[in-house]
Specification:
Elements: E1 4-8, H1 13-24, E2 28-33, E3 53-57, H2 63-73, E4 77-80, H3 87-92, H4 94-116, E5 123-129, H5 152-171, E6 175-180, E7 182-184, H6 193-202, E8 207-210, E9 216-221, H7 222-235, E10 241-244, E11 249-251, H8 252-266, E12 275-278, H9 293-299, H10 307-320, H11 323-326, H12 330-334
Parallel strand pairs: 1-2, 1-4, 2-3, 4-5, 5-6, 6-10, 7-9, 8-12
Antiparallel strand pairs: 9-11
Helix pairs in contact: 1-7, 2-4, 4-5, 6-8, 6-10, 8-10
Bound molecules: thymidine-5'-diphosphate.
């Protein structure tokens, strides 16, 4: 019972990669996932039968079930990765984002507050995003910079970060907020840029870039993010916010070119694999960039995977795991979202 941890959203991209790491470090992991379009049992197939892993279908909005799970497993930590995360979807269906990302977190906080009364050592790590800082045309965002979210998605994450902090101040719960830059790596839903480009390279389709392809993101390999979360769990300070970034900014056009180049060394790409500029995303942030000096200095963590190496590993994973796609709805991969509103 001593080393139980809960991961919410563990059938998703970052959650499943984090579980893999936690199991390697000998924690007992309880994965709580509501099973949505982006949940994929393929992501947990390697440890599904392990005895220190347990899956429970549960929505973070379900207080009765969450209370029972907390009381039964008495986790040392809850890593909250259950969230709606795709900006384009949030443009079409913002309500789902409010329900999961705001009301879900509110419910989790209420349950955790109650649980914490008798389990004072337990802590909640709320995983958030660099998108809360909004469009960063120059310099890099620090932890105390103003939140200025541009999309409904980012606004719901900003809101949940504020809620977590308010519970730390008001009810003295043990909680930490982490704000990470754009992740990529194995098991990411192909609605997102990098796995979408890889899917299209494998399937001889155009690579759609929004606008002129000059928008810039700070790309971090998912394992680096998970290592940072583990470090924060072990030595992070309650009530603090930590930025987690790689310092590796790249525009979308360069990412697409790099991936097409990698694809050509690994497969015979079809003649349709070409960059195609398409209508821009409404409200599209030009650049995100984090200053991650705090986690580097205070906790001694830094990201270690170079972009080329990380992209190669990611491409190879999708190439060797094409059954991953068969568990997803094809329209969720190919349909352009965020245009009808
Ligand atoms: P995305 O992966 O959706 O992450 P986020 O918007 O949360 O950063 O998009 C990353 C960047 O890639 C963003 O600038 C939008 C762009 N993009 C495209 O150009 N084409 C695409 O098909 C997708 C999904 C994204």
């Amino acid at each position: 019972m001593k080393k139980n941890v809960i991961v919410t959203g563990g059938l998703g991209f970052i959650g499943s990669n984090l579980i893999k790491l936690l199991l390697k470090k000998n924690f007992k992991v309880i994965n709580i996932d509501k099973i949505s379009y982006s949940s994929n049992f393929y992501n947990t197939k390697d440890f599904n039968v392990k005895k220190n892993y347990k899956f429970i279908k549960c929505n973070i909005n379900n207080s009765k079930k969450i209370n029972n799970i907390l009381n039964k497993y008495k986790p040392l930590c809850i890593f909250n990765l259950a969230a709606e995360t795709h900006v384009d979807r949030s443009i079409d269906s913002p309500k789902e984002f409010i329900e999961s990302n705001i009301l879900g977190v509110f419910n989790l906080l209420e349950c955790f507050k109650k649980f914490s009364k008798k389990n004072k050592k337990s802590r909640l790590i709320h995983i958030s995003t660099d998108e809360v800082y909004g469009d960063i045309l120059k310099n890099r965002s620090k932890e105390n910079d103003t939140y200025k979210p541009s999309s409904p998605y980012a606004a719901t994450k900003a809101s949940s970060d504020h809620l977590v902090y308010s519970y730390v101040r008001t009810y003295k719960i043990n909680a930490i907020v982490t704000n990470c830059s754009n992740n990529y790596g194995p098991r990411q839903h192909p609605e997102k840029l990098i796995p979408k480009i890889i899917y299209n390279c494998i399937n001889n389709k155009n690579v759609p870039l929004y606008g002129d392809g000059k928008n810039s993101r700070e790309w971090i390999y998912v394992d680096d993010h998970c290592n940072a979360l583990l470090k924060i769990f072990k030595s992070g300070k309650n009530g603090e916010f930590y930025n987690i970034g790689s310092n590796l900014n790249q525009n979308n056009l360069n990412i697409a070119k790099l991936l097409i180049k990698i694809a050509k060394t690994k497969i015979e790409t079809g003649k349709n694999v070409k960059i195609k500029f398409v209508k821009d995303r409404p409200g599209h942030d030009f650049r995100y960039a984090l200053n991650s000096n705090k986690i580097k200095k205070k906790l001694g963590w830094k990201s270690s995977t170079g972009l080329k190496k990380g992209l190669e590993k990611t491409f190879e994973w999708y190439l060797n795991n094409q059954n991953y796609y068969s568990k997803l709805k094809k329209t969720d991969i190919t349909k352009r979202l965020g245009q009808k509103y």
